[in-house]
From TrEMBL, chains A, B:
Family, as annotated: Belongs to the ROK (NagC/XylR) family.
Gene3D superfamilies: 3.30.420.40, Winged helix-like DNA-binding domain superfamily/Winged helix DNA-binding domain
Protein name: ROK family transcriptional regulator
Record SUPFAM superfamilies: Actin-like ATPase domain, Winged helix' DNA-binding domain
Organism, scientific name: Streptomyces gilvifuscus
InterPro entries listed in its UniProt record: ATPase_NBD, ROK, Tscrpt_reg_IclR_N, WH-like_DNA-bd_sf, WH_DNA-bd_sf
Segments forming domain HTH iclR-type: 20-60
Length: 385, 385
């Protein structure tokens, strides 16, 4: 990071503020001398900035250890970042479950609540269920609603930049829903809406199976498979937010629906819900031949979807989540088939976060937003490419 | 663009030099006063920089119009960028053809040469053919070899960052070929190797069918279909340079080879070369039923490949090039099927550059390299995201 001179003084103040917060956040506590050394700012600048941050509530003086004071006299004042100065929510809206995560400004998770919801629930019912979960979570953690700084929300379907669900086959009344706007009524802070598979990709990269890779495809295997991709560590949403919506891919040239794919009889599986599918998986585990054949077909479809993604994007790593994480032996055929079809086969691994992936990703997106506000040093000197 | 102060003085000189070149390149010719105004640099700085650029050969004083001199007396000195100060090559290595484009530093094409080459030619023979084409091109244009500033080369297959072909099924002896190194022996300037479909995507974005879009998938329909993608205007190569290598996709779940796909008899098409395929297309145009069925199968496979790319990447625009550009009625089924399978179907159009797309893209990559050297203002003040 370079140093800016001249230009807008309020911009400069904001940058210096971000630089100091950044430094404080990376450490337990620091003296003014230490901050001056780490940031390269002048002592008076650091003093002014720290004073401003204390007023804003983001920094607090740390009380010295009394035993140290007794032995060595009063040490230099130390300051720390107040991660408790604000809070974040990560929300996951699924077909049979809504979930909420609460964290502080360091992204440390303070609590979680999940609620079942009927797959046929209306949009109003589903949102109400989510509000109930949030209220319960805040109450349990003793966190006031106006302490929230950002809320991340993950939903199935194609999500537009303004938080509207452009298209969603998985949830009733969801297509066209102004999800961001609807949820904004419950919060005073920004509400950020993201596709569920995208959120899960972000989560696995943050603290799951993909922390070591910046080029990742996360496949959310389920009723309607979806995928989220990181390219160079950043989410690839696509031109219209529909990247990775590969649900229709298996239909190409083969008129196979999930209902027939997973059926163990000659009739389509009905209702096709996660419980019915879990039952098929369980039977297959017990050795039922028809169930094993159905699971085999499911895996073949997954292989096809993942191969298409891998060929198009050439990721370093594919993380498989959703239903497939409950399947024994899904990795082996995936690796074998990708090695057959890809000129450069990616590594394949299972999700580490499991059911928590989507809400965790939503939380990370809320944290990203707050970090941009608090710590982003716009106007930093960077190379052109 | 902001202004840097302090720091490395040679960096500052280089930046000022780039800023002045940038300004001169955007205009026909400019006076020192005009350059001073446009760049915001001081008059002495501009004078020093222009003097240095004249010495380096990149700038020349433009002789005043004698009629103006007669009428109004001698005007202020005007300077122009010398696009002829260096030259660029764009090379296309195909299975039955090698081609070369020559351009000046403005990217203006000064000449082109193409040579047929046998599909079964060895790597040495193919490279020799390319060298012959380049020598002929330079001789015809009267351009000295040491005037070349960069050479872009496009090749089928997965190309590594160091210019080695990691894998290529289309050309004999091509897998493992250190293509960049081999060609570097013929040139003193940098040689940049890129995948052919990637190069074509860059070309259509530069001066073809995709000048209006930054999120583009270019599909090179041929024996082994490949694709190149631009995301936000930049080439997406993938983690290992294999993004878009969808040649194997149609094999998934359907053991259909191109030989049987395009056969008009019960026997596989042999030899499967472009001539044989062109013959099938011509028969189909004349109304031959079996040829029409074969072309129909070819289009279906193309639809499947394009759909997979569109679902994975969600581009704004798909440009179809290669064989398919010779096919009447390939657009209509593509648009219809993509509308069926994509949640957000992309626009679909045919390549505008046709056979020239790959070499034109290689040329653009050479130009990009030179522009980075001459005009890139590293260390410019830019927003963080």
């Amino acid at each position: 990071m370079g140093r800016l001179t001249g230009g807008d003084p309020s911009l400069l103040r904001r940058i210096n503020s971000a630089v100091v917060l950044h430094a404080l956040r990376a450490t337990d506590a620091a003296t003014l001398t230490e901050i001056t050394r780490v940031t390269g700012l002048s002592r008076p600048t650091v003093e002014g900035v720290v004073e401003g941050l204390i007023e804003a509530g983001y920094v607090v003086e740390k009380a010295p250890d009394e035993s140290v004071v007794r032995r060595q006299g009063r040490p230099a004042r130390r300051f720390r970042f107040r991660a408790e100065a604000g809070h974040l929510l990560g929300l996951d809206i699924g077909s049979h479950r809504v979930a909420a995560l609460l964290a502080d400004l360091d992204g440390r998770v303070l609590g979680a609540v999940a609620k079942d919801v009927d797959e046929s629930a209306s949009a109003d019912e589903r949102l109400e269920r989510l509000r109930t979960a949030v209220a319960e979570l805040l109450r349990r953690a003793g966190v006031a609603r106006d302490s929230l700084r950002a809320v991340g929300v993950a939903s199935p379907g194609v999500v537009e930049a303004d938080g509207t669900v452009r298209l969603c086959a998985a949830l009733p009344e969801w297509t066209g829903l102004r999800l961001g706007e609807r949820l904004s009524r419950s919060f005073k802070c920004p509400v950020l809406v993201e596709n569920d598979a995208n959120a899960a990709a972000v989560a696995e990269h943050w603290k799951g199976a993909a922390t070591e890779s910046d080029d990742v495809v996360f496949v959310l295997a389920g009723l309607s498979p979806g995928a989220g991709s990181l390219i160079g560590g950043r989410l690839h949403r696509g031109y219209g937010g529909a990247a990775g919506e590969i649900g229709a891919l298996h239909l190409l040239g083969r008129e196979v629906t999930p209902e027939t794919l997973l059926s163990t009889t000659d009739e389509p599986l009905h209702p096709l819900d996660e419980q019915a599918v879990a039952e098929v998986f369980a039977q297959a585990k017990k050795g039922d031949q028809r169930a094993r054949a159905a699971v085999e077909r499911f895996i073949q479809r997954l292989v096809h979807d993942v191969a298409a993604l891998a060929l198009a994007l050439d990721p370093e790593l594919v993380v498989v989540g959703g239903w497939a994480t409950g399947l024994d032996g899904v990795l082996e055929p995936l690796r074998r088939e990708l090695a057959r079809y890809c000129l450069r086969p990616p590594k394949v691994t299972l999700s580490l976060l499991g059911e928590a992936a989507v809400a965790t990703g939503a939380l990370r997106l809320a944290l990203d937003h707050v970090e941009e506000q608090l710590f982003a040093v716009e106007g930093t000197v960077t190379a052109r490419r």
